[in-house]
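Sorry, can you check?
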Amino acid sequence: MTQPSSSDTFDFVVVANRLPVDRVVDSDGTTQWRTSPGGLVTAMEAVMRVTDGAWVGWAGEAGEAPDPFDDDDIHLHPVPLTAEEVRDYYEGFCNDTIWPIYHDVIVSAGFHREWWASYRRVNERFARAAAEVAAEGATVWVQDYQLQLVPQMLRDLRPDLRIGWFNHIPFPPVELFAQLPWRREILRGLMGADFLGFQRDDDAGNFRRSAARLTGVTQEGEVLTLTADDGRRVRAAAVPISVDSRQLDEMARTTSVQERAVELRHSLGDPECLILGIDRLDYTKGIRHRLKAYGELLDEGKVAPPQTTFVQIATPSRERVEAYRNLREQVEGTVGHLNGDHSPIGATAIHYIHRSHPRQDMAALFLAADVMLVTPLRDGMNLVAKEYVACQVDGGGALVLSEFTGAAEELHDAYLCNPHDIEGLKQTILRAMTDDEAEKRRRMESLRQVVLDSDVHTWSRTFLLALEHAPAEPPRDEHEPAVITDAEDTQEGR
């Protein structure tokens, strides 16, 4: 880790709520920064290593931000948040206002003016930080729903910049979006970008319809014309994200991961069928619906331990938000009830784990699982589904996938389900368990082709190419935007 010059500016800037590293304090008190897991970090890594890149984001702790520093050839520019801003901007407006609205109002959204004021203030701070580190004519890529005001704020500060924004979560229909008291301000903030990327065509369409209906811009196909802004044109289109599928495939082929997969199955009693769920503990992920369906299968005797074992990993998430605390109580209560009713001595019906796991252990679990349950009520993409597929190097496994995920639009040969239909979900789980091996292998081969052919690096190249040419569509015969010259060769050569 090195300290950069305060005068450094960069040709490519990523702006995200979080930095791509986490601060870790060792037992001797030494502070280190370790790369965070996640698709966004992976996607940006290849781009930033072949460009003059900087990353603007929050370091994850309230209070004074660390000084800017360089980590593994990437400049990191921390943005501070106070404890009150963590409460009002992040836990409040981001996760108790925007998140519910953008996820079909599965739980009620809170509308508080002090949260909005904090959201505006923090977005302005991020915009100023990005303006400070961006070189003349730089490309700035803003990420996700936490920073929807940044594009226009940044354009006001630095009209010379090329600005893109990507939404990692769904964008709601106008009828839901219109509930936001600050709907026009958010839309105007977003339309400060030159190109806006979304996970699905429906999400991009929802945004364009909201903008046309609520702000009066004109729409022609994927392009919005801002008549009040000298006719500036903005393109909004789908650019679905993926995972580093090649890396996962390679990891799943290693001896250590394969041995760990065998070890995990043995520790679970070597069941005939191992069913797996891995999710953030979030009400959008459909964990309660999944448990209800599995509980009824247990009640009906259609599954039973030790022949069938269900492992549910629920990664801690937003534990200071009331809706998430309530969800944890409900999930853990349901698991306890089902285990009390159905676990014989020496076996457990449902293994519930509420903590994060190392990446290699996750790959081993994916490899070990016969059936993967990915059943969100609403999800922008769901990368767990793609990670599971990428790890099925032996061609086995079965993916049960909610039709309300972005992934379902690409992974057509998954066992698709409506998680609201408990009876239908039960039948889909049983089908995934009992289909003949040839059918399951046919499905998995098709899924792997999709996931391996379009990985996270393809996503980043596609987005940046679209940003480079916006508002026009990029030429069909181009493969690389100018900003990431030779990115593919560099990635393969590392």
